[in-house]
Amino acid sequence: MNNNKNIKSNDKILSVAPMLDWTDRHCRYFLRLLCPSCVLYTEMVTTSALLLGRDPERFLEFSEAEHPLILQLGGDDPVAMRAAAAMAHTYGYDGINLNVGCPSSRVQKGRFGACLMTTPELVAELVAAMGESGLPVSVKHRLGLDREEDYATLRAFIEIVAMAGCRHFIVHARNAWLKGLSPAENRDVPPLRWDWVHQLKKELPHLTIEINGGFNELTAVTAQFSAVDGVMIGRAAYHHPLLLAEIERAMGRRETLPVPEVILSGLIEYAEQWGEALPAPRLSRHLHGLRFGQNGAGAWRRFLSTAESGESAAEFLRRGMPLLD
Fold first, then answer.
1. Which of 102, 125, 164, 307 is the S-S candidate for 281 at Cβ 3.0 to 4.6 Å?
2. Is 175 annotated as ligand-binding?
């Protein structure tokens, strides 16, 4: 029984976070089958990969079914960001997102990602350059850096960036600790401050404020819709993808939950279009959560672990269909 029928959230944003090495185009197609209304994001793509790499299509191509789809960019050079945003427009993305939250050593070396929290004026320049593409621009950022917590600094960051034309801010409600924590630890250790994000929306009602960080069950997500404009789901969407459909139902966007057999049939049709160009492991690695919390989940995961590159994804998934009966 749906106990959330009275939630007035049909106009709110539900999105899936950009996750490096996870939200590739095959993962996104799978998630789209489960959640028709959510906004999908690419993995972070650096401007250097697009502008200096030999194969930018590898990062930019996607299936039409993935819309609405946002390209997340990483970088700190307005000229390069302008060129990369123009490419996003050419390829037909629905928007561009600037990464101001990644704390990895790679981005620290390049002085982008979360490092940009200290230079709001530069972020404003990047946003203005991206905006010349004509696509909507959003910024995904943290509350601050390391153990320094100051709400006024956070608000000032947003106000400066908003003056450059950004109207959509996705706030990962933790600081990024660049010293002493790994990227994985940065997803759990810094304290969550959901209340800070709620306060931002109260004080800056003209901006779209979307919250991210620590959401892994239905009621925690739906409780946010009275305080902010949307919720971005991270790892929970990957490990428990049916959660997205449960949220959609609570938002009034669907009546029933998807059937795993139907989802798998859709994936087989998708894989057939690729043929041998899509080996089984490239798709199967994203499907471990299809039976999350259900009888037979263990057998399904064991089957997925047998995927080999010599078999096409379509043939492999056909063999797995009986496990979903």
1. 307
2. no
Main-chain dihedrals φ then ψ at residue 191, nearest 5 degrees: -60, 145
Length of the chain counted residue by residue: 325
Q: Residue 315 — pLDDT band, cuts 50, 70, 90? A: very high
Closest by CA position to 200, among listed 146, 247, 147, 141: 141
Whether residue 199 is annotated as binding a ligand: the answer is: no
Reply yes or no: is the peptide bond before residue 68 cis, omega within 30 of 0.
yes
- What is the arithmetic mean of pLDDT over 85-91? 98
The catalytic position among 27, 38, 102, 166 is 102
Q: Is 20 annotated as a binding residue?
A: yes
- Mean pLDDT to the nearest integer, 143-152: 93
Block residue for tokens 């057939």 = 272
172 is in an annotated binding site: yes
Answer for the pair 201, 182: CB distance below 8 angstroms, yes or no: no
3-state helix, strand, coil in the chain (%, to 5): 50, 15, 40
Question: What is the reported pLDDT for 109?
Answer: 66
Could you give phi then psi for residue 69, rounded to 5 degrees? -135, 130
Residue reference for tokens 């153990």: 147
Q: Would you call 102 a catalytic residue per the annotation?
A: yes
Least confident of 84-93, 184-193, 314-323: 184-193
Spatial separation of the C-alpha atoms in residues 224 and 222, rounded to whole Å: 5
**Residue 4 marked in a binding site:** no
CATH topology of domain 13-250: TIM Barrel (3.20.20)
Residues of the chain with CATH 3.20.20.70: 13-250
b/e per residue 116-138 (b: at least 16 CB within 10 A): bbebbebbbbbbbbbbebebbbb
- If 0-12 CB within 10 Å is exposed, 13-18 middle and 19+ buried, where does residue 155 land? middle
Region of 87 on the Ramachandran plot (φ > 0 left; ψ -120 to 50 alpha; else beta): alpha
Q: Is 111 labeled as ligand-binding? A: no
3-state secondary structure of 71: strand
Lowest mean pLDDT among 42-51, 70-79, 182-191, 268-277: 182-191
